[in-house]
Amino acid sequence: MQYEAPQTLDAALSLLAGATGQARILAGGTDIMVQLHMDTTDPDMLVDIKNISELRAITETDGAFTIGAVTTGAELGENEAVKKMWPGVVEGLELIGSTQVQGRATIGGNLCNASPAADVIPALIAANAITNVVGPNGSREVAAEDIPVGPGKTSLAQDEIVVSISFPARGARAGDAYLRFIPRTEMDIAVVGVGISLEVDEAGVCTQARVGLGAVAEKALLVPEAAATLIGTSLDDAAMEKLAAAISAACRPINDRRGTIEFRTDVAGVMARRTAKIAYDRAVG
Amino acid sequence: MAKQHVTTTVNNDEFEFLCEPKASMLDVLRDELNLTGSKEGCATGDCGACSVVMDGRLVCSCLVLGVEMEGKSIETIEGMADGEKLHPLQQQFLDHAALQCGICTPGVLVAAKALLEKNPDPTETEVRYWLAGNLCRCTGYDKIIRAVMDAAKEMRAA
Amino acid sequence: MASGETEMEVEATSVRQIFRHLQERFPNIKSHMVDDIAVAIDGTVFQDAWLEKVTENSEVYLLPRIGGG
Amino acid sequence: MDNSMDVGYSADDKELKFVGKRTNRPDGVDKVTGRARFGADARLPGMLYGKILRSPHAHARIISIDTSKAEALSGVKAVVTRDDFEDRDSEFVPAGEMMVNYRDMVRNIMAREKVLYDGHAVAAVAATSVTIAKQALKLIDVQYEVLPHVIDVVEAMAPGAPLLHDDLFTDGVEPKPTKPSNVAKRLEFNMGDIASGFAEADEILEKTFDTKPVHQGYIEPHSCLASFSENGSAELWCSTQGQYLVRAHCSKLVGMEISKLRVTPSEIGGGFGGKTVVFIEPIALALSKKTYRPIKITMTRDEVFRSSGPTSGGNVRVKVGITKDGKIMACEAELKYQAGAFQGSSVQPGCMCAFAPYDVANVNVIGWDVLSNRPKVAAYRAPGAPISEYAVECVIDELAERIGMDPVDFRLKNAAKEGTQTAYGPKFGPVGFVEVLEATKALDHYKIPLGPNQGRGIGSGFWFNIGGETCVNLNVNEDGTLTLITGSPDIGGSRASMCNMAAEELGIDVGLINPIIADTSVLGFNFLSAGSRTTFACGLATIEAARNAIENMRKRVAQLWDIPLDAVVWEDGAARPASSNAGEFEPMTLPEIAKIAPKTGGPIAGHAEINAQGAGPGFGTHMVDVEVDKETGHVKVLRYTVIQDAGKAIHPSFVEGQYQGGAVQCIGWALNEEYVYGEDGRLQNSGFLDYRIPLASDLPMIDTKIVEVPNPNHPYGVRGVGETPIIPGLAAMSNAISNALGLRMSELPMSPPKVLKAIKEASV
What we know:
- The structure holds 4 protein chains of 4 kinds.
- Chain A has 2 domains: 2-115 and 129-167, Uridine Diphospho-n-acetylenolpyruvylglucosamine Reductase, domain 3 (2-Layer Sandwich), CATH 3.30.465.10; 174-284, Enolase-like, domain 1.
- In chain A, 34% of the residues lie in helices and 25% in strands.
- Chain A has 11 helices and 14 strands.
- Chain A has helices spanning 9-18, 32-37, 73-77, 80-85, 87-94, 99-102, 107-113, 120-126, 224-230, 237-250, 261-284, and strands at 2-4, 23-26, 45-48, 58-61, 64-68, 130-135, 138-143, 148-150, 153-154, 161-167, 174-181, 192-200, 206-214, 221-222.
- In chain A, a hairpin with a 2-residue loop joins strand 4 and strand 5.
- The radius of gyration of chain A is 19 Å and the shape is globular.
- The mean pLDDT of chain A is 97.
- Chain B has 2 domains: 4-79, Ubiquitin-like (UB roll) (Roll), CATH 3.10.20.30; 88-157, DNA polymerase, domain 1 (Orthogonal Bundle).
- A 5-stranded mixed beta sheet of chain B has the order 2-1-5-3-4, sandwiched between helices.
- Chain C is of the alpha+beta class.
- Helices cover 23% and strands 20% of the residues of chain C.
- Chain C is built from 2 helices and 3 strands, in the order H-H-E-E-E.
- Chain C has a 3-stranded antiparallel beta sheet.
- The longest helix of chain C is centred in the first third of the chain and has 11 residues, at 15-25.
- Chains B and D meet through helix 2, helix 3, helix 4 and helix 5 of B and helix 1 and helix 17 of D.
């Protein structure tokens, strides 16, 4: 295996384009290192993208944030501006693994690892985040929910790199949240994860909402029918019941060592209600 | 598999070594640099026994490639005491009997030190969550948490 | 104990002598069973203690050896 | 041992200077600086790396093993398979921990006719690097005939279940079975008349409980370094709870004389019973014997879970009858324990402990030792007891609730005490269960009001504790310091306890004693650091060695002063004339005696070679408060208190540590830990990510209350404390959750899906 740590995006792209055999991008490495140890990946080349400055930057333009793909959980957690605007996204990234993992795991890595149970993806989906991708043929924008296509699989080509993730500007009365269910209090993979972002009017009525749902399907899902249950309501009990039902209906989980179909379907609804409440409280302020 | 040349700093000492690209920083520390204080409990980032600080960030050395040490500054358990003077955390761990078998201790100490440098006055809950990635099977964590809290107090008073 | 007997009186001054009596009386007892037995003499448990003394009125119980983690 | 050993004084009648004090841990600084050398920290010049090929099948016949391609790989120095280990006859021999059958052990360390579990070793390679060794494993061609497998204990007992061994006939049933089965053994313990006991009962409750296999979860993987010499001797460095047992097993499995194998125990990174047997050590020796190079083998975490020795899962039916005023009249239980792929589960101690905490006239306990396609179990803290006592304590708690009696009062009413006849054999000597329960009742914890969705649970537990073979040398050095040499690996601070006792005896400062854990060439046989024996047995030997050293020093002084030995006494670290009648002599201090030792007969030492007897049983009670999230089934532990009789806490910090660590292992076992197998019989959670041991963030502080009812068979009253703390917590947790929810659960772990399911079923 060859290891390369290019300093520029162009150099990284040409390494990927010129690779013979399998080339993989190394961001935080918290998944790839485990796969290397367990002998479940054997790439011919690893391209470490952490030294590329555009991938590290966090910028804001008129309330719209762009976060570099290799921003770690620890770094994002220290950025007060992002935390204020997108607390749910920060929560999603910060919930991954331990303090130690937080020092390494990146927002782009968690997205591109494409785990069905990834914590940041439902939050990104809810936030309507756009992924900025570059490849040999230039750049393109891809909605966060369109990056993963199945467990460990993305819609990206081998020679494409996620440079950053952009978040739209939004009104003052907006809030987002991410909650997951795990058996312990830390260190576990989500059994269910729900990200919700919403905006309310002056009367506290929800005008816009997006709901992302993780760990209950082959990939994280955008659930518009769940969002629809919130719009036009003040998240009263009836709306919350409808939300839970819509979420449970969207679940198509499996039985595995982390949870049963029945449990995941039930708890997804519970988590959705709790997440919505937090997002709403943040929006109302 | 061609080895790569790496220059790095560990506990303020400069090291040069040749590294297999797949080797982890933990492998390098233990097998190349003979710094066996960092322990391998899982090699998958789940136990924290290999915790080190790299350029100011607490990381699991099993989740970092050895070649990524190039140009970095690493702090391990071996650099924690100042000559014969133990770090307050080390002394508090002894005073509190915060270790039984001692295999998790280096990782816990490195992680706790990183916490106190960032947050000199943590609550018990903050200590518990910061150390959630450091598994200890012997102590039930009680004496570890007390030792960290008391070390924080001692360091604030100093 | 063999043949449904659960209590017996033996004359012995040591644990080893008790075991000998048992093996004479119940020839089917395998030697490893004797090795695998502990005794309690008047409430105190002894393992592998052939030479331990018993007195005339000692209450001796046989029990399986105990290990631990 | 000389049981008439003069105990001198009881713990009460003298001011103790070091016993009972929180002294510095002699190995502490090395362990907080990273200097301490654990199993994987050793290396030798010319060292090769060993890796083991493991079965991907739960059950398969090995048709052939072709290692030729692996052997041809550059850098590979040796390959071993079943052919490199001589077969052994089926014969049970006592080898410390339990009876051992080397025919089974030789098959467990390297599969022979069949692989019997996912992860069973099939071949091993020694190569110049780990990378090459791993590559070589891929080149070994093993042809398997895959066979049907069975994982669950009840299914394994059913007629027609896939058979692991076609020559296994159930022992202990009449008439002797003519057909083989997976049931290795039936055992039964009886006392009184169970039928009439139930006839006198007003309330009878019968329930069946299920527990899953769990792993000890020590953080340090097994690791060893073996070096065979051309002269037929070998050295072995490894992480173990007993270097002498490693020597016994390895010399047998590798075929060498005991004197030619020298085993050095590394610092041990946790064991809890799991490091009482051998897995990789004979393989490393065999590879070294082929290459005459040092061989290092370190298990990965995946291998630790798949291929070491977790504890049994069990299925336990309990029936208890009580009078309406709370007297237990009859107890019955049937225990089915998984042994794994070879016989020898912990069902026997499980049976013996089941009802031991209670004074009951009529008891019947039946145990079954059952094989299935899982790794052969090893000990895990009080092996067998947590499973049976969990079931019993849940039933006891529910019965107390039925008759409206406080659960502590109910236990107090029935508690075993001195003179209580146990079902497993002896009558108890002095025991502290009543004192433990009274201390429990007095706790502030017991009075704290609970909020909504919160519950409080109590559970109690009993463990025998043991003694065993122990040797200690105490060398008086020429500068007046002492070197204390023991053969018991220090798994949680025992060096400090030994030094406390030696210093107390010698009347000198504890800092003058330097303790060393010896390799097998230094001392005679020492049993394991297990069974809660170390502080008791190694402590007895340490005390005896100290007294022996004192006697030797008194002899020298008596000769110098030219007075009889009994005219010289030892007080406060010095020899003194017994009275003014003995003559006028200035006391001679230990350093003074040591300094002139060459001129008075040569070096001075004390030693002891004993088989420690008379261990004192340990009783404990745990009290826990939990809060249940009724929408998700998630359980949060709010408060936890461990109350246990230590006999005497030689070093209170490490006694508390045993209580706290045991309690948290209970929490893990109760809430989340379990071996999860797929339909294919393969383990699905062989890492700390999905084998979920408790984290710092999951827990509150663990409060402790040390009760001290001295064991009369130890000079300071020690009972041993390591095992009992893992027993009471399983039922305490279950009872707390039951109390919070108003429903009773009867399986472990009480993971969120199971708790939520129980809530939903109860609300239907």
